[in-house]
Automatic annotation (TrEMBL):
GO terms for biological process: mRNA pseudouridine synthesis; tRNA pseudouridine synthesis. Keywords: Isomerase, tRNA processing. Responsible for synthesis of pseudouridine from uracil-55 in the psi GC loop of transfer RNAs. Residues 27-187 form the Pseudouridine synthase II N-terminal domain. NCBIfam families: TruB (TIGR00431). The active site is at residue 42. InterPro entries: PsdUridine_synth_cat_dom_sf, PsdUridine_synth_N, tRNA_psdUridine_synth_TruB, TruB_C. One of its GO terms (molecular function) is tRNA pseudouridine(55) synthase activity. It catalyses: uridine(55) in tRNA = pseudouridine(55) in tRNA. SUPFAM superfamilies: Pseudouridine synthase (SSF55120). This is tRNA pseudouridine synthase B. Transmembrane segments: none annotated.
Length: 234
């Protein structure tokens, strides 16, 4: 592949694709086998995915993996999921009366418990490996011991409540948070833990990664635009 195509690509990953799916698309259109990404986004998440193309770029993977990140998260209260997001079956965990007691102040106060460095338990349905086996594989087989899930120290710099939507007869209350954090934070776990802290349960209903280091979603290319860009170089 010509050296001018060895670069850092800022992709706006669409919802529904895995990060590896995006890498495969880039590998195909660039005709370069040395392609990797710098930080997994779950299939149900969208937003900034740094894709590294070529030898020089892939050598910088650790640099981008260690960059701080920013997310916009939609969290729904009153239900929980085994996957901590909308992918798993949902179970109602709180009555309408209990959910009506939530307020922006109560939620903001609860969020303060997750600012700074703290111990976080990753989701059972995650790619973290224990003894060489990804947790999600064991979880799907039903033979994952909760004690096997490694507790990790993570750091969240700030959590801002952007919007609070109260419950009604047809929906559960939701919030939208802006989260600035360091590497290794699971926003799915944050949603789960916040629901537990408030005593009502919660799951991550939508997630957008809006920034990785200096790269923001506004400058990210969708896959069609990326395809067109590469075609114009030939």
């Amino acid at each position: 592949m010509p050296s001018e195509l060895e670069k850092i690509l800022v992709i706006n990953k669409p919802k529904g694709l895995t990060s590896h799916d995006v890498v495969n698309v880039v590998r195909k259109i660039s005709k370069e086998r040395r392609v990797g990404h710098a930080g997994t986004l779950d299939p149900l998440a969208s937003g900034v995915l740094i894709v590294l193309v070529g030898r020089a770029a892939t050598k910088r993977q650790a640099e981008f993996m260690n960059a701080d990140k920013e997310y916009t998260a939609e969290i729904t209260f009153g239900k929980v999921s085994k996957t901590y997001d909308a992918e798993g079956p949902l179970t109602v965990t709180a009555s309408a009366e209990k959910l009506e007691k939530l307020s922006p102040k109560i939620i903001k106060d609860a969020c303060q418990n997750f600012i700074g460095k703290f111990k976080q338990k990753p989701p059972a349905f995650s790619a973290i490996k224990v003894k060489g086996v990804a947790l999600y594989k064991k979880a799907r087989r039903g033979n994952l011991n909760e004690a096997e899930i490694p507790i990790k120290e993570v750091e969240i710099n700030s959590i801002t409540l952007l919007k609070y939507q109260t419950t009604d007869k047809e929906s559960f209350p939701k919030i939208w948070l802006k989260i600035k954090c360091q590497k290794g934070v699971y926003i799915r776990s944050l949603a789960q833990d916040l629901g537990e802290k408030l005593g009502v349960g919660a799951y991550l209903s939508e997630l957008v990664r809006t920034r990785v280091g200096q790269y923001v979603v506004e400058q990210a290319l969708d896959l069609q635009s990326l395809t067109n860009k590469y075609e114009n170089l030939h």
